[in-house]
Every structure is written in structure tokens, then in C-alpha cells.
Amino acid sequence: MTAALHRRAGHVLLANWRGQSTVPAAGLYPHQWSWDSAFIALGLRHLSPLRAQRELEALFGAQWPDGRVPHIVFDRIVPAVAYFPGPEFWRSERETGPRHPATSGLIQPPVHALAAWKTFLADPGLARTRGFLPRLYPRLRAWHAYLTGRRAFGSRGLVSIVHPWESGMDNSPAWDVPLSRVRPVPPDRFTRRDLGHAREAERPTDDDYGRYVRLAAAYRDHGYADELSRHAFAVEDPLTNALLAASEQAMSEIAAEVGADPEPHAAELERLREALVNGLFDGGDGVFHAHDVHSGLPLRSGSIAGLTPLVVPGLPVADAVVKTALGDRFRLGETGLPPSFDLTDPLFEAHRYWRGAVWFNIGWLLWHGLRLHGATEVAATVRNALLTAADNAGFREYVDPLTGSGHGVRDFSWTAAVVLDLLT
Ligand code: 9WN
Q1: Domain of 178?
Q2: Index of the ligand 1 atom closest to the CA of residue 24
Q3: Which residue among 91, 241, 243, 374 sits deepest, i.e. has the most Cβ atoms within 10 Å of its Cβ?
Q4: What is the mean pLDDT of residues 176-191?
């Protein structure tokens, strides 16, 4: 199976390559997405280190002057009707000027420095010849500075996201409470394009979309200003903050490689790790919970995001989190497939997007985090389960955590990329 699976995963990534970067999936997602590209680079580096470098360079080529890395970079040759909301909705040119690539104004979880460092390691000679890290390092620094400077709304030293799309886990039940305060835009005021490519029962609802549109339009209409009072939704998310901390570890390595001082990055990792544990860890539940900046309350939920701080080196509560991963709520030791939401919670839905289905990028993060903290046996179970599920389901976007049946679109890029990395 290994050689054939490797070959098929490679074909998926080659077919989804668009000359500068890779689309998450033909049809449903016809542009470049931020955290997708980072995961794609992790896999692509085993096929073509050059393309993996270019993938990240294309994304950072669309970075805004304020340092934000947009969650979508639009391909100008793709017709406007292909994806909603497209460039005409975001109007990024008002902020970045007409010569800049058209983008969204939101962000996604900051896994990029980790991907950049691993991409470098795949072929250091090529990377050095091309000046890959010396060019990327200042951009990565500006990206992290945007997050810790402009998005530190609370006084707790953590980064906030201002839209569910920024979490990468769009319709996670973790966002139900803060979203209930947002009045949905009526569905006849916009046209969803996703339903032309995927089953309605497996996607966010019209009400979800109505709220996403309301929040994004408000951000746009205030010139994408990062003022807390302007945002109806402001949440300190464990995944975003954990990936930033893990990326700071990678930044230390990158800094040493380019002749810069690694020390500030090591200090930043330490600071974020402490802020995460003090601010978001719930010892009783054995997981991290997001924090609602407006209400000042924790958003207690069974989101798998609460286990992802395992990617943070030196996490002092790693044993408790591994115990939760192995318990009834996630059953990682038995199935090896991490559900995106607590299996025992009445809100769990096996096939609806981020309300229960298994996603391969999260599987990769947990595999990586489990190994980092010495849980090598569980990590091996996760690895084998992800490979089998991707193989059986045709590199689907997500799978049922209990049966492994495939859902969402086929030939999804980060599913293939994760397979390539796990096989190598
Ligand atoms: C909105 C591209 C992206 C992923 C997200 C996933 C989904 C977009 C959508 O697809 O979100 O950004 O249209 O539903 O939730 O994690 O990056 O693959």
C-alpha cells in the first residue's frame, strides 16, 4: 500500500498545483488558503522542495503592510462566481492598493514558521541558494508581530481571533455562544457557492453563513481596524495561540540559520506557553478552552482544539491532555482518528464539518504533539489510522471518526500532504 498511496497522494498535490501555489481542492476551494498552504508545504517538500518554498513565498507575497497574512489569496483568473465570498466582497485593494494581490481581510492559524522550517530542512542547499529563509524571516516576524501587537485584546497576553473562519474550524460548537449574539444576514442577501460542490448536511448552515457574512462585512466596513469595540466576536482560541507558540520555536531555529538572535523567540515561546496554560487550561476537564473576550468567560466545549496545545514544546500539562485524548471523549488510543468534537456530547455530528468529523491537518498536529511529549505508541496509532482513512476514502476532506467513511470533497490537498509527510 505504501508506494501506491505515496504515488496517489503525489498526484493529488500535482493536480491541485496552479503554477505559484496549490488550491485546497478543485471546485470547492479554487484559490490559495493560508493554513492550507502551510500544511501543503509540509507534504510537498517531499515531492518538490522548490514548490514547497514557492507555496509559502506566494502566500507571504500577499501579506498586508500591517503584517497580517490573509486567509485567502484570490487567483485573478478564476471567475468571480466560483467562490463566495470572493474579492468583490472583501475589497482588500482599499487597504493594500490595486497592485497587491486580491485577498480576504481575515487570518488563519499561524502554522507557517513551523512549515517554513521543515521546508528548509527538506533541502537546505536549495533553500540557501534561493535565500528562502533570509527573505521569509522578516515576513514571518511581521506576521507574528501583527498577531501579538494588533490582536492582543485581552490583558492575558493571548492572541484573539475575530471571526470563526479565522479559527480554521468554522462551525465548531465552541463558537455557538458568541455567535448567538450575532444577527444573521438573511440567506437571500448572498449566494452560497459551496453547496454546488458538497452536501448541505455536511456543511455549515445558512444561519452560520448569515453570521459569518455579518461579521466579515462589519470588519471590512471599518477598514479592517483591529479595535475590540468594533468586533462582536473576539475569542482567545487555544489552537491559534498554540500554533503561534510552536511557530516561535521554529523561529528560533530560523533565526539561528539566518544569523539573527534566536533568544527573543525562545523568550516568546516561554511567554506564550505560560499565558496559554494560565489563561486557557482547565485542569478539571483536562483540556484547553477558548476564552470569550467580551463576556470574560471561558467557552467550555468539547472541541479538539483543546488538545492541540500538545504541539507546544515543554507543555507542563501534556500528561493530562494525553489522558483526555485517550478517554471516552476522543478515544484516540482505540480509533486513532481524532474527532473534531467530543464523541459523547449531544452536539457531536459525525459528518458535519467541524462539529465532529475528523480532519487530517488536526490529526497531523496531534501526531506531532504526541511524539513531542513521548506518547509514541498513541502517535503510531494515529499515524496508521490517518493513512488508512485517507487511502480508503480517496483523500477526502474529512471522515467519520467512528466508521472512517469519507465526506466533503475528494482529493483534498492537505489530506494528501499529511499522507506524504506521515509516509516519509
Ligand atoms: C472558509 C480551505 C478552508 C480551510 C478551513 C475550512 C474551510 C472555508 C470555507 O476551507 O473554510 O475559510 O469556505 O468553508 O474550514 O479550515 O482552510 O480548505
Answers
A1: 2-423
A2: 18
A3: 241
A4: 96
Q: How far apart are CA 164 and CA 171, in angstroms?
A: 7
Q: Residue 11: its pLDDT value, please?
A: 98
Task: Report the b/e string of 359-384 with b at 16+ CB within 10 A.
Answer: bbbbbbbbbbbbbbbebeebbebbbe
**Torsion angle of alpha carbons 358, 362, 367, 371, nearest 10°?**
-150
User: Helix, strand, or coil here: 281?
Assistant: strand
CATH of the domain at 226: 1.50.10.10
Residue 284 Cα distances to 311, 321, 369, angstroms: 21, 11, 21
Q: Indicate the number of domains in the chain.
A: 1
Catalytic residue IDs: 170, 397
Residues sharing a CB contact under 8 Å with residue 77, sequence separation 6 or more, in sequence order: none
Model confidence pLDDT, tens digit, residues 320-332: 999 999 999 999 9
What is the layout of strands, in order, in the sheet containing 398-399?
358-359, 398-399, 406-407
pTM over 0.95: yes
Q: Tally the residues of the chain.
A: 424
Residue to probe by mutation, ligand 1, list 169, 170, 362, most atoms within 8 Å of CB: 170
pLDDT, tens only, 100-124: 999 999 999 999 999 999 999 999 9
H or E element: which one contains 298?
strand 297-299
The three-point CA angle 404-407-411 to 5° equals 100
CA 264 to centroid of ligand 1, rounded, Å: 32
Distance CA 164, CA 228 (A): 16
Phi, psi (degrees; rounded to nearest 5) at 14: -65, -40
Could you give the maximum distance between any two Cα atoms of the chain, in Å?
55
Mean pLDDT of the chain: 97
CB of 36 closer than 6 angstroms to any ligand 1 atom:
yes
Q: Which long-range contacts (CB under 8 A, 24 or more apart) does 74-81 make?
A: 74/31, 74/101, 74/102, 74/103, 75/18, 75/23, 75/30, 75/31, 75/32, 76/101, 76/102, 78/30, 78/31, 81/193
Backbone angles phi, psi at 211, to 5 degrees: -75, -40
Query: Is the pLDDT reported for residue 33 higher than 70?
Result: yes
Phi-psi region of 374 (alpha: psi -120 to 50; beta: other; left: phi over 0): left
